[in-house]
Write a structure and sequence with these properties.
Keywords: ANK repeat, Repeat
Structural class: mainly alpha
Organism: Fusarium beomiforme
Protein name: Ankyrin
Helix content: 25-40%
Distance between the termini: 53 Å
Pfam family, one: Ank
Number of helices: 22
Strand content: under 5%
InterPro entries: Ankyrin_rpt (IPR002110), Ankyrin_rpt-contain_sf (IPR036770)
Radius of gyration: 27 Å
Length: 452
């Protein structure tokens, strides 16, 4: 994103050219709306800031350092790391009838720095920070503990390599590679946790991505980040719910995963997950102690599954690793077969759904090639991998049919009953549980019925 805008380009600030008080003044009613500041656009138009400071946010969003420089010269008070009291800044009359609309508690709620770290760019963030640090000699470290975020973590999570580089180069003034945010994340864990944002819609070329976040993670590792880092619990039970590795295996390629393992990340380390992480159709209120392999299987990351198995360590038997059970008696194969595909309402192309389906097939094939005897293994509830596949929310998607074909070809027994006396054919027709989203019943395809 460019840090300046071409004079010939249409101004992105056109919505700020209207004076909110113009009509009132024409009627002799004065100026009832407070205008924090005005500035001149490149074409000579006057821009009127709103009580929400949305003009400033727009300038940050454009990474427009030229406009930000003018803004700060006119209204240097608008950006501060200290609380800003609105009626002191704007000279708002105490009886202003609109005061509650834009400052209900008298303090401006602003997160310009957070917004710049996530959506702006290195140029505007540097200018904002320099603006706050210029009158401090010596300048103490700038942190945002009251707002409960770390700039480096946010820039890392959103894949801004240049911004991360700038913050690392300005340690400890603006950041520290070992600082944790209010959720217990370091910058490396934040960069690895992008799978959580997979359903978000971002502008083209913006937001986290596999390539950008991998570059950020490599940069952080180059600068001394700990590959074996965990997310420190901030809740009462104090159980570890993620490591950098368990985050990374959800999406990363083999090269980065191997680098983490070579750097000390434990392939077999257990973390606690539960309803807040995953939704299982048969045990929605359960928690599980699982390793990174389960996450890789659940996210159908074939390269991660293969790398974890290859890097299992000397003396660790492959079959022992694949037969390790979670607290409900499930194997990694069970987790792999219950994957869901993105629906038409999700922000995915059909090609992406097809790729995920192919990856699910590849993961299942790998697991069965290494230990074919697990094909009909039952968990504590008597469910086989085929039971799990027939309960996937994607079971009626034609892209899921090859997964059923693979399981049946490799020896899945459709006559096995679980503890409720149900075969996979029963679970195929079973309606979604009452706390799931309500969908109209669907009839399985003839091809699928023939397989079972």
């Amino acid at each position: 994103m460019s840090s300046t805008l071409s004079p010939e380009a249409e101004s992105p600030y056109r919505r700020f050219v209207r004076d909110p008080n113009a009509e009132y003044e024409r009627k002799g009613l004065g100026r009832p709306y407070a205008v924090p500041m005005t500035m001149v656009d490149r074409d000579g138009s006057i821009l009127y800031e709103k009580p929400s400071f949305s003009l400033l946010y727009s300038i940050i969003d454009e990474n427009d350092t030229e406009a930000l420089r003018q803004y700060l010269a006119i209204a240097p008070w608008a950006v501060s790391i200290e609380p800003i009291f609105s009626n002191e800044l704007w000279a708002v009359p105490m009886d202003d009838p609109y005061a509650e609309y834009y400052a209900s508690d008298g303090v401006i709620e602003e997160d310009y720095f957070l917004y710049a770290a996530q959506w702006g760019g290195r140029g505007v963030l540097q200018m904002l920070l320099d603006h706050c640090a210029k009158d401090r000699n010596p300048a103490p470290p700038i942190r945002f503990k009251l707002e409960r975020y770390q700039l480096l973590n946010e820039a890392a999570r959103y894949g801004h390599v240049g911004t991360v580089q700038f913050l690392l180069d300005n340690q400890p003034l603006y950041a520290s590679i070992h600082d944790r945010d209010d959720s217990g994340y370091t910058a490396l864990a934040s960069a690895a946790s992008i799978y959580e944002l997979r359903w978000c819609n971002f502008k083209d070329g913006e937001g986290p991505s596999d390539a950008r976040n991998e570059a950020v993670m490599n940069l952080l590792l180059d600068r001394g980040a700990c590959a074996s880092d965990v997310v420190i619990p901030t809740y009462e039970d104090k159980k570890i719910r993620h490591t950098v590795l368990t985050f990374a295996v959800e999406w990363a390629g083999s090269q980065l995963i191997k680098r983490l393992i070579d750097g000390g990340a434990d392939v077999h380390a257990k973390v606690t997950i539960g309803p807040w992480n995953l939704t299982f159709w048969n045990q929605r209120d359960s928690t599980f102690e699982v390793s990174a392999l389960y996450f890789a299987c659940t996210c159908a990351n074939f390269q991660a599954v293969k790398t974890l198995i290859d890097c299992r360590g000397a003396g660790v038997d492959i079959k022992g690793m694949l037969r390790e059970r979670d607290s409900r008696g499930s194997l990694p194969l069970h987790w792999a077969t219950q994957n869901d595909l993105p629906t038409e309402s999700d922000a995915f192309l059909i090609s992406t759904a097809r790729e995920i389906a192919e990856n699910i097939t590849k993961v299942i094939t790998l697991l069965l090639d290494l230990d074919p005897t697990t094909i009909n293994t039952q968990d504590n509830d008597g469910n086989t991998p085929l039971h799990y596949a027939t309960r996937s929310l994607s079971r009626h998607n034609k892209l899921y049919t090859p997964i059923f074909q693979l399981l049946c070809t490799r020896g899945a027994d459709a006559s096995i009953r679980n503890n409720e006396g149900q075969t996979p054919l029963h679970t195929l027709f079973r309606l979604n549980d009452e706390d799931s989203y309500s969908f109209p019943p669907k009839v399985p395809s003839t091809q699928l019925l023939y397989l079972l």
